[in-house]
Predict the structure.
Amino acid sequence: METFTSVIGTDQLVLVDFFATWCGPCKAMHPILEQLKQLFGERLRIIKVDVDKHGDTAAEYGVQAVPTMMLFRNGQVLWRNSGAMPLAQLKDVITPFLN
């Protein structure tokens, strides 16, 4: 079974979406993340972390608002943002890290 640490610790680019089921902006991000997955395919892994179920992980990374998205490679935080974002803006943020 994969752990959060093992997933973000690889050299693959990983976008983590810290969310809550009751959060409206989090729900709005779901189709945007689906579109992002279609755009980037295997070059980007997207995982979702429910802060209500995994509060310890959210606390470890200082997540105080949802949605909070963080980009990881080799266990290092490359970028983070709290709040919903449009697809174009999220794509523009991630693209430079793919090279």
Remarks:
- Strands lie at 13-19, 44-50, 68-73, 76-82.
- The mean pLDDT is 96.
- The longest strand covers residues 13-19.
- The two ends are 29 Å apart (CA to CA).
